[in-house]
Design goal:
Layout: H1 10-41, H2 46-49, H3 52-64, H4 72-81, H5 85-119, H6 123-144
């Protein structure tokens, strides 16, 4: 039997190992960001999350002009929860700000990881880059209270 692995040049083999290490590291960063997002959203269905931006917009508009008619997006929720429209609107706006801050942090960390991983020249460089990014990610998440 012929061992074809000996036909692969060492530099080609090394490039494959490096590419695999980078992909594994990117998956770790992606899994971490998904875990942080999951802790924030819990079991909120995607259809509800898709309404967050429009709900923030109507909450901001209503808070700017509380004499205006209450938008259906707020009225329906308040009817079920028994919340005052002003309290609900204030909560929606505050939650939206926290969500945006967290998503900005996650996006920045993912992009920073991509840059560091692209610059890595060995699997050991990849491991060091991932360790550094994840340490900063955990620190950032703790500062945001999302760790």
């Amino acid at each position: 039997m012929i061992d074809w692995s000996r036909m692969i040049a060492p530099e080609v083999r090394a490039a494959g190992v490096l590419a695999g290490a980078r992909e594994t590291a990117r998956a770790a960063v992606r899994d971490w960001t998904l875990a942080v997002t999951q802790r924030l959203t819990g079991d909120v269905p995607l259809t509800e999350m898709l309404a967050w931006s429009p709900k923030e917009a109507v909450a901001r508009a209503w808070l700017a002009d509380p004499k205006a008619a209450v938008p259906d997006l707020l009225a329906g929720e308040a009817l079920v929860t028994g919340e005052d429209i002003a309290a609900l609107s204030t909560r929606v706006v505050a939650s939206a700000g926290a969500w945006r801050a967290t998503q900005a942090m996650l996006t920045g960390l993912r992009r920073r990881a991509d840059t560091a991983l692209d610059a890595a020249r060995t699997p050991e460089d990849v491991a060091r880059a991932l360790d550094a990014v994840m340490a900063d990610a955990d620190d950032a998440a703790a500062r945001l209270g999302r760790g």
